[in-house]
């Protein structure tokens, strides 16, 4: 019974932090490719979004330069609740270094074990949910201001999004000490049940001792009828 009470209380007290990974499928028919991730994020949660993008080391991507990735929290009616962006570009490699690396990797490149690509890892911090729950995330690729709409968009092999949320202060303490709190609640519940059982069922648990009959033959002989008569 104590374990059941502790389990029910922990179900209401403990809240698990959000951790998920989703593949991003960008819509390249738009001037700013967009990918949506349906996910409900509780209010007042701080979220760190990590975007992994694998880009081919093509001449187009090398000459593209800077572009920007934006992450937005959307409500159920499509309103923007929070927004953060991060600039990025391919890591620069000079022509001699690129030729030298290609010579060293020629065998696995020809065999298909590796490819001429780079994986960009973008960490976007500071996203906090408001009073309205987040129902969807929108990830958008934006070009530089100097380019025309539809230009400056990188070529992608694949992309994915990882979300990690940070619980509020009290919930974070409960999550870190959930096993200890579970044991303490179970012990307190057991002690309370034991106390109630002792109070309510005391006559059964601790019966009163019965008074024994202490009459003996000597007592019968000393009755008034057996006493000697006075002269």
Keywords, please?
8 strands, alpha+beta, Seipin, membrane, endoplasmic reticulum, Jelly Rolls, 4-stranded antiparallel β-sheet, 231 residues
Question: What can you see in these coordinates?
Answer:
This protein is an alpha+beta fold and 231 residues long. It folds into 2 domains: 1-17 and 168-206; 18-166, Jelly Rolls (Sandwich). Helices cover 32% and strands 31% of the residues. The protein is built from 8 helices and 8 strands. The protein has helices at residues 2-13, 59-64, 95-104, 106-111, 169-176, 178-200, 202-205, 217-221, and strands at residues 19-23, 34-41, 46-56, 67-74, 80-88, 117-128, 134-142, 158-166. The strands form 2 sheets. Strands 1-8-3-6 form a 4-stranded antiparallel sheet, with no helix packed on it. Strands 2-7-4-5 form a 4-stranded antiparallel sheet, with no helix packed on it. It is elongated, with a radius of gyration of 38 Å. The N and C termini lie far apart (78 Å). The mean pLDDT is 80. It is a multi-pass membrane protein. The chain crosses the membrane at residues 181-205. InterPro entries: Seipin.
Outline of the structure:
With 231 residues, the chain is α+β, with helices and mostly antiparallel strands. The chain is 32% helix and 31% strand.
């Amino acid at each position: 019974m104590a374990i059941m009470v502790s389990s029910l209380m922990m179900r209401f007290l403990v809240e698990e932090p959000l951790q998920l990974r989703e593949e991003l499928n960008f819509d390249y028919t738009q001037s700013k490719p967009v990918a949506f991730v349906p996910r409900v994020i509780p209010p007042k949660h701080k979220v760190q979004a990590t975007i992994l993008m694998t880009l081919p080391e093509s001449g187009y991507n090398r000459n593209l330069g800077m572009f920007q990735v934006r992450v937005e929290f959307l409500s159920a009616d499509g309103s923007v609740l929070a927004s953060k962006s991060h600039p990025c570009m391919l890591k620069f490699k000079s022509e001699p270094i690129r030729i030298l690396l290609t010579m060293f990797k020629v065998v696995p490149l020809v065999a298909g074990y590796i490819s001429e690509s780079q994986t960009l890892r973008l960490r976007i911090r500071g996203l906090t949910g408001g009073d309205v729950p987040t129902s969807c995330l929108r990830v958008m690729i934006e070009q530089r201001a100097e380019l025309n709409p539809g230009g400056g968009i990188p070529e992608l092999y694949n992309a994915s999004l990882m979300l990690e949320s940070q619980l509020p202060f009290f919930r974070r303490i409960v999550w870190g000490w959930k096993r200890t709190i579970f044991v303490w609640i179970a012990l307190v519940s057991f002690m309370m049940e034991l106390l109630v059982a002792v109070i309510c069922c005391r006559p059964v648990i601790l019966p009163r001792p019965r008074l024994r009959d202490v009459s003996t033959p000597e007592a019968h002989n000393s009755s008034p009828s057996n006493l000697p008569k006075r002269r």
